[in-house]
Design brief:
Length: 474
């Protein structure tokens, strides 16, 4: 027995001698079964996705008829953008882009179908994001004044497209009231106010001349930007810090329409689909991880679809899953570092970095875990990889289920979807997953995804340019 113990590395487990290799392989199998049981809550099969597609479709119909169904959580706001670019748009335009902690001012030059853009980025500090609306819009006006001076256009009153990427209800092309702040903004005195008017008043205070032609969100801008290159683009999608979608709808399907009924009898609909599920319609697929994330957000109970999809939340969902597994002694040998215990500490960019790491040993994963002060084994590296994969895969599937409802609603057999957002751009599996499940969910449609080139800036200018072209043709 002595020689066998030496050769086989026997260990005593609960009073019994066992081969070390047999014990640990069996433990690893049991551990993986337990891990998979917990992560299984994040798995959505094709039937689940078809069900979610149906629920989104119902919410869309309800939102379009919200004149009679005001409780719809998917708002389906008409944008009053009714024509796509035809390539003849020309001239110089300003574009403002507010949708996160970085604010941009752009000079956009359109000529002969070509687009030249001169952008400048300004940082918005937290105290401005959470201060007063007057402070926020005064800051935007100051940035515009500085930019105009740098471009030698102080006295030039160019048409302006204002990308304001927050849930808004449009009252016309250049009039929109904020429904609710998202993405960490909470500036007072802006909700239920016309953001174009607030910007105009701030510019008057700062003696900045401007002509606001259009207020749009980044989703509509993305659609218009891609439609400039592809005439089959009728859907815009954002998958970044937040998520939203828009598409071109027939006017006779829009009960809330209060504009004219002249040609073209269509309008782009800003879905504000991030709120899908706020009425309880997604409770059966939300996990304990999702509920824990929701508890620590500023808008608890709101934007529940977005909180399962967008880059602002995927890292925290992953961290919640890691903490739960560690608490059950299935990860990090039950030891949770102070860093891993800190909410929002596991950034969503880590998911992209981890999924890009195809090395057997998980070199990048190990670097991230060291940064998070988590002692780890090769088994832990594999589990962390599985967690991040499950969270990202679910997000891609949920987006695709929503898009399948949009394609179904439009009834077009050929459609291009313009997409913008860091998650789509940089995550290595997001596009392939969406492509795969689009074919599964809408097999009769030919769907192409097109990466937007600066939709929020270029698109806003194009919307203003189309409006100027149409006004000149009347």
């Amino acid at each position: 027995m002595g020689s066998q113990v030496e050769q086989c590395e026997w260990i005593k487990v609960k009073g019994e001698w066992k081969r070390k290799s047999d014990h640990f392989s069996r433990s690893l199998i049991l551990k993986n079964i337990s891990v998979n049981a917990i992560l299984d809550a994040l798995h959505l099969n094709l039937d689940n996705l078809k069900d979610i597609q149906g629920r989104m479709y119902e919410s869309m119909v309800k939102g379009l008829g919200s004149a009679t169904n005001p409780t719809s959580v998917v708002k389906m706001f008409p944008t009053y953008v009714r024509s796509l670019p035809d390539g003849t748009e020309e001239g110089d335009f300003f574009a403002l882009d507010l949708g996160g902690s970085n604010f941009r001012v752009l000079l956009v030059k359109l000529k002969g179908g070509e687009v030249e853009m001169i952008p400048k980025v300004y940082k918005i500090e937290k105290e401005i994001m959470t201060g007063t609306g007057e402070q926020l819009f005064d800051y935007i006006a100051d940035c515009l004044a500085e930019f105009k001076k740098e471009q030698g256009l102080e006295d030039k009153d160019l048409p302006l497209g204002f990308t304001f990427s927050f849930p808004c209800k449009q009252h016309g092309l250049n009039s929109a009231t904020l429904v609710t702040w998202t993405k960490g903004f909470s500036a007072s005195g802006v909700v239920n106010e016309d953001v174009a008017k607030l910007l105009s008043e701030a510019c008057k205070r700062r003696k900045v001349n401007l002509d606001i032609i259009a207020v749009v969100n980044d989703t509509t801008g993305t659609l218009m930007s891609c439609a400039h290159a592809d005439r089959n683009c009728y859907v815009g999608l954002i998958i970044g810090t937040g998520t939203n979608a828009c598409y071109m709808e027939k006017l006779d399907k829009v009960e809330t329409w209060n504009g004219d009924n002249e040609e073209p009898k269509q309008t782009i609909i800003n879905m504000e689909w991030g709120a899908f599920g706020d009425d309880g319609s997604l409770e059966d697929i939300r996990t304990d991880f999702d509920r824990e994330v929701d508890k620590i957000t500023l808008n608890k109970g709101k934007q529940l679809y977005e909180k399962m999809i967008s880059g602002m939340y995927l890292g925290e969902i992953s961290r919640q899953a890691m903490v739960k597994l560690a608490e059950k002694n299935l990860l990090f040998e039950g030891a949770i570092s102070a860093e891993m215990k800190t909410t929002w500490a596991f950034e969503s960019k880590y998911l992209t970095d981890i999924e890009k790491d195809v090395s057997t040993e998980g070199t990048k994963i190990q670097e991230i875990l060291k940064e998070m002060k988590c002692p780890h084994t090769p088994s832990d590296v594999a589990v962390v990889r599985a967690i991040c994969s499950a969270v990202a895969t679910r997000a891609a599937k949920l987006v695709t289920a929503g898009l399948a409802a949009v394609i179904q609603k439009m009834g077009r057999k050929t459609v291009t979807i313009g997409v913008d957002g860091s998650l789509y751009k940089y995550h290595p599996r997001f596009h392939p997953l969406m492509d795969t499940f689009t074919r599964e969910l809408v097999p009769d449609a030919h769907v192409k995804y097109m990466l937007s080139e600066d939709g929020s800036g270029k698109g806003a200018a194009l919307i203003a340019a189309v409006a100027v072209r149409l006004a000149g043709s009347k």
